[in-house]
Amino acid sequence: DFDNDGILHSIILIFLTTEPARVRVSVRVRPRNDEDLADADSYDCIELQPEVKRLKLRKNNWSSESYQFDEVFTESASQKRVYEVVAKPVVESVLNGFNGTVMAYGQTGTGKTHTVGRLGKEDPSECGIMVRAMKDILATSGSFNVEISYLQLYLESVQDLLLPEKNNIHIAEDSKTGEVSLPGAAVIKVRDLDHFLQLLQIGEANRHAANTKLNTESSRSHAILMVYLQKTYQGKAENEKSSLTKHNKNDVPARNGAPMLIKSKLLIVDLAGSERIDKSGSEGHMLEEAKFINLSLTSLGKCINALAENSPHIPTRDSKLTRLLRDSFGGSARTSLIITIGPSARNRAETASTIMFGQRAMKIVNMVKLKEEYDYESLCRKLENQVDHLTAELER
Ligand code: ADP
Ligand code: MG
């Protein structure tokens, strides 16, 4: 009788690839809406130069400032194109074993939910990033196990949108790896795309019900979809090709026939409106509550600033949102941010602040890591079988 645990635990996690990957930032402008059109004094304060990925913000009639982004989407950009540029590279990376984040940031009414969360029930060509990402994940050949959690973060409290009875979910952190998990949240195995659409719809209904009860709007809360991917495969002997989906530099080398496990996580985040609460006149909220609503977004802004300035201290522990996004900014995930803005000068102050948030995020470089583990359970099973086999041999 010998103790496997000690030996195996010490070798269970291997980081195979570590490489720098800058946070990608795209900007999307929504079409002029009725309010923009009805406002006689309003004019467009932004000018897009999509071919050079630049955006000009008119400060007044005489001066404007120009900003560089990774991509600039005009009001006529299709949902499909936005997905392909913003999210698809992250999804592919997650399928290859890296963690990934896609997040939308912007003022209420500028198209975050349209971009990220739209189901496209009436018109499937209009569905957003969550649905398209899941479609690609489920269509990938190979034995992936796909599970999701769907959460809302409001007033520093995490609510489960799939299991609404659970409304104060604890955020746990692994003391060694720093990995964040939500042990109390429902984790549901996704069977197919229809099943996923049902789950999203349930989530939306629960979000609506919870917000009615709390007397708030969904623009005040963050919606967070977590997708957990897991793939087991047999490590090949040296010199043999790996069994992963793609043969590129992210590919996993041979592991001498050991059963291996690749785990990765995709976070898709539809943030609360970035506008300052006191300006938008939220009725029925006390000042203290308004401060609390702002806390997570304010903390996120502080972390982005600190990271952009290479500050030695990043205040990730200040809010639930920044704890949840620890891996996404300054961590090991591949991250793509889409900022959404309105075209009209009416919103100039919020538009300028959203642009600055995006500009700072572009300076952040994450160190993406491919995580591979020995499949501990099947390795133990294999060892036990070997021991049984040897014992039988000896007794013969
Ligand atoms: P947010 O989630 O940022 O508050 P929404 O996604 O709810 O904003 O968008 C507000 C409204 O504008 C919705 O009716 C949405 O359909 C519309 N809209 C936003 N972006 C676009 C776009 N790019 N094309 C067409 N309609 C859009
Ligand atoms: Mg929204």
UniProtKB/TrEMBL annotation:
Domain Kinesin motor: 22-364
Identification of the protein by name: Kinesin motor domain-containing protein
Subcellular location: Cytoplasm, Cytoskeleton
Binding site for ATP: G106, Q107, T108, G109, T110, G111, K112, T113
Domain of life per record: Eukaryota
Family: Belongs to the TRAFAC class myosin-kinesin ATPase superfamily. Kinesin family. Ungrouped subfamily.
